[in-house]
Amino acid sequence: MPRARTPFAAGRLWLDFVNTDEAPRHAQPDALVSFDGYLAWLESVGLVDAARRTALERRALEQPASASATLHEARRIRSALRPLAERGLHASERATQTAVLEINRVLGRSTGVRRVERDPRDGSFTRAFVPAGDAFAALVIPVVESAADTLVTGELGRVRRCAAEPPCPRVFLDTSRSGRRRWCDMRTCGNRAKAARHRANARAPRRLPPGG
Ligand SMILES: [Zn+2]
What we know:
The chain is mostly helical. It is 50% helix and 9% strand. Helix 1 packs across helix 7 and helix 4 (64-87) runs antiparallel to helix 5 (93-109). The radius of gyration is 21 Å and the shape is globular. The model is unreliable at 1-6 (pLDDT under 50). The site of zinc ion (ZN) has 7 residues, from loops.
């Protein structure tokens, strides 16, 4: 199983996964609108390679019901994870419970073998999980494992939603030293916020000179 590409745009794989629902705002189709779109996203983050994607596409043609159930599940997991990603430690008890239930449901049914793999590029070692059984259902496991890691490492306090106005739904992991990062991306939302502040300052009434 190919290793996921790192670093992820949002800092963690599961946050990139949550962010796939904001594509329509940028006139791109939601990655999870079709099974093929889901596979394309999985390839874009390095969870499947081109050959595996082709094999899965072929299989989806043979088993359309199973492909559509897999897609449906991915969307359900995404909507369970979003409230947790948006509010981090401040997510409601109910939202947190729902996310944990989804995570445990996937982890609970995932079977496979654990192994150590060597990266041919630099010879480094990593642990890998090679799922057995249903190839479709296994696709989401690394995403869910990534969410589980965030919970158990105490990293959730650094997960939040972009503070931009108008609202931007992107979530991210704040890895800044100060822990005060507010925008998903300095080049887009951060810059817009700065420009808006400038405009507001320019509009503010200036004090007139004495006698004026
Ligand atoms: Zn943003």
